Amino acid sequence: MMLELHRCFRCGWCKYPSGFEDYNCPSYARFRFESYSPGGRLWLMRGWLNGELDWSDRLSQIIFSCVACKNCVENCRMDFREEILDWIISARSKAVERGLVPPKVRDFLENLMKYGNPWGLPKSKQASWLGEMERFSGQDFLVYLGCECRYEERGTEMAWNVIEILKKAGISFGVLDDESCDGNEVLMLGERGLFEELASKNLQKFRELGVKRIVTISPHAYNAMKKYAGIKFEIMHFTQLLLDLIRKGKLSLSKLDSTVTYHDPCFLGRHNRIYEDPRKILRAVSGLKLVEMRMNRENAFCCGGGSGNFVFDFLSGSDSPARLRIREALDTNAEILAVACPICKAMLEDATKTEGLEGKIEVRDIAEIVLSSAK
Amino acid sequence: MKEEIYKALIEIVGEEFVSNKKEELYIYSRDSGLSDPSFPDFVVMPKTVEEVQKIVQLANREKIPVVPAGASLTLSGLTIPHKRGIVLDMRRMDRILELNRRGRYVVIEAGVTQGKLQSFLEKNCPDLCHSLPEAPPSATVVGNILIHGQGNLTQSYGFNSSMVTGLEVVLPTGQICRIGSCSLSPYWFSIEPLPYLAGLFLGWFGTTGIVTKLGLKLFPKKKLRDVELFVLEDPNLLVEAIYRITHTEMAEDVTTIAQPYPLMYRGTIMIGIYITGDTEEELEFKRRIIWESLSELIKAKEGGFMALMPEMKKGLLEKPMSGLTRTADILKGGGFVYCGAIIPVEKFPDALRKLVEIAEKNDTTYAHSGRVIGRGHCMMFAFAFPFNRNDSESIKKAKKALRESYAATLEIGGVPWKPGVEEQDMILEKMDRGTVELMGRIRGLLDPNGIMNPGNWEVRL
To answer: Which molecular function term from Gene Ontology is one that the record holds (chain B) (predicted)?
Structure first.
């Protein structure tokens, strides 16, 4: 697969959004050395495979600091553009095979294998309300939560908001007692074997329980499940379901006088081309004024959390992608930054605090916005 | 010693922005062209002019080479550190400091990219634009100017380097100086009427100082833009056609294209004529005048306008044209190099003949693109050769063809644009001895320790 690495000219179109406003590659924007750009990374990978470069901590960090946001794929002008991310993942796979991954990535993968979540947390640390949730037993929908929504505070809030909306709308749904990780980050990190194992476990469970329709909270889970081999069930991101409920009149929304800007998650946007459904939900809230950030839709700047970086945070620092993004959101004069992904929510909320912007802009998930305006 | 230098650099710009790691040294040791790599000792990314000054003072004191770099897209190795030392990646200095709309100029830092300035102007003053080269958006504006680049306004206003309204430069000894009106006024409106000190830095490839800020002329940007392709077969008639087109003063940009593939294009030469206007009437008027200027050639069946399919027109009107970047992958090999020959327009037939001969002799394919400079005062004629980065034979052929193109350029009376170090030697060899001596004396005066981008414009007196 990487035999064509030499075709990258390192012209640099891949660093930009389509209008060239600013650098749009998270790792390049953060580090600014050419080595952290998509082209630089590909050239280094080629140097490694050619034997010109030895594996090192730095090379490892460069290869694993790509957050798989796909901006490079979107903006590269060459015929091989669709393969760029696959090449990076292939290089990671080689590192995984040879036991060369950075320690934080190793821990991430080991924790997933041992504990079912990347933080290595025991099940007792899952959201407390999970115990009260109805288990899936043939309802219309299975709500798939994923690690972020079971263990991470902002994710659990988001999942709770979605669940409350589904209850209000009278939707029949259940959750799993024992979910396996969706495997999205594992796939992006190049651990294909583990991804297939997780996919197989999930598929087996879905089949046993007769699942027909799945709603995911996280776009990452949505993306992973779309890649499961032989899926025979319908899969939706929660924003798609919410929009459907609004259209069918099952959810009526009251007024919310606020200026809101929306951050496109990479795994919903560039990876799956869902740009308008979340915006349609926000526009359905009367009084809500939706404004766009400079970089939006296929040009959205990533929060920096993808590919496991929400755990190991290789891109932290004063110009971390999340901090750059929250500054961009602030430039719109919006009071609320709406998100549709638990990882984006956590990354951007943390960035709001680090930037000292609490009280100036608030990160809220779309479900929370809908819930607060639902009659 | 290296460890001490490393610490000193960290002291200046902070640990995050200095690297002596193999990975950065590898990437900054090469560009996308065919020059041999040469590793630096450090890569440093300054944010302010004061940081640049401190780095240069350190380098001058310790006699360490310093190579300023933008996006390193010259393809001729001008930012390769031939004698090791420090590569200064200037792209953290990326602020657009001032837009003077009424005075039609902008003041930028050295790391501002073409893409960033283009986007900024489109958003903040859509009736103004700068001369945009056909480089990727990641190329820096200052880098393009320092190598005497060209852009879409070059036919109308000359080389992009003639559009400079002011400079801030860190000299090789560390002094900061300003050139032009900004040296005595808060306004960066003009280089003239003072002694033309800008000439000490433009075209010198960073061997005389580091430009940290630049004032740049902006020009009226019309609301509409269109392109026509005039096709002919006889290169001698192209010279006449360009004379007639430029005489009308109706075209914003005039370019040339000749390539053997697709086969339908073989044996033809195309002139891209770009027109702009604020109304359809203005465009139509210009179109008509240009058509009339070429009517004799059309009547004599020596040439004609090509009907452009929408996709082709879209590609030609794209700013910048990504199609030119895609030339790099014609052979699915991720590489192309070119000798940009600055030649009198009348030498076009000779240059084209040479290009075809060189390609045939070296069993390689070619592509030519060119651009008229001024109202036909000269033109840039690119002898371009794609190559496969993964095929040593293909690389060898392209290298040889490139070398022969530089020789051909000099032979027909042209001047190679942004030549690499070996080609600079070819130029210096042919240059008037008095001129060479003057260049040497200027460098010696400005850079007594020879620290600035050594290897380039090396005059051996």
So the answer is: D-lactate dehydrogenase (cytochrome) activity
- CB contact under 8 Å between A16 and B322, yes or no, is no
Tell me if the domain spanning B224-417 has CATH number 3.30.420.270. Answer: no
Asked if residues B76 and B420 have their Cβ atoms less than 8 Å apart, the reply is: yes
Assess B62–A contact: CB distance below 8 Å, yes or no: no
**Would you call B37 an interface residue with chain A, using a CB distance cutoff of 8 Å?**
no
pLDDT confidence of residue A2: 66
Taking the Cβ of residue A11 and every Cβ of chain B, the question of whether any pair is shorter than 8 Å is answered with yes
Closest B-chain CA to A316? B16
Contact criterion met (CB < 8 Å) for A44 and B26 = yes
Domain boundaries, chain B: 2-91, 92-220, 224-417
- In chain B, residues with a C-beta closer than 8 Å to the C-beta of A9 are 32, 325, 328-329, 334-336
| Cross-strand partners of B337 | B385
| CB hemisphere CA count around B105 (13 angstroms) | 19
Is ipTM > 0.95 here?
A: yes
CB proximity list for B206: less than 8 A, separation 6 or greater: B67, B68, B78, B79, B146, B452, B453, B456
Say if strands B415-417 and B334-343 run parallel, antiparallel, or are unpaired.
Answer: antiparallel
pLDDT digits (tens, 9 = 90+) for B42-62: 999 999 999 999 999 999 999
Taking an 8 Å cut-off on Cβ atoms, the answer to whether A31 and B19 are in contact is no
Tell me what the mean pLDDT of segment B210-222 comes to.
Answer: 98
At B249, is the pLDDT very low, low, confident or very high (cuts 50, 70, 90)?
Answer: very high
Give the tens place of pLDDT for each residue, B11-50.
999 999 999 999 999 999 999 999 999 999 999 999 999 9
Q: Which residues of chain A are under the pLDDT cut of 70? A: 1-2, 375
Chain B partners of A13 at a C-beta cutoff of 8 Å? 136-138, 322, 325
CB-CB neighbors (< 8 A) of B143 in chain A: none
Which ranges of chain A would DSSP assign to H, the alpha helix?
A: 26-31, 38-49, 57-64, 71-75, 84-97, 103-115, 146-151, 153-168, 184-188, 192-209, 219-226, 238-247, 276-283, 309-312, 321-331, 342-354, 366-373
Q: B371 — contact with chain A (CB < 8 Å)?
A: no
What pLDDT is attached to residue A178? 86
- Residues 64-123, chain A, touching B (beta carbon < 8 A): 77-80
Second-level CATH architecture of B92-220: 2-Layer Sandwich (3.30)
Q: Which helix (H) or strand (E) holds B368?
A: strand B367-373
CATH 3.30.43.10 fits B2-91, yes or no: yes
Q: How far is A102 from chain B (nearest CA, A)?
A: 16
- Is A35 an interface residue toward B (CB < 8 Å)? yes
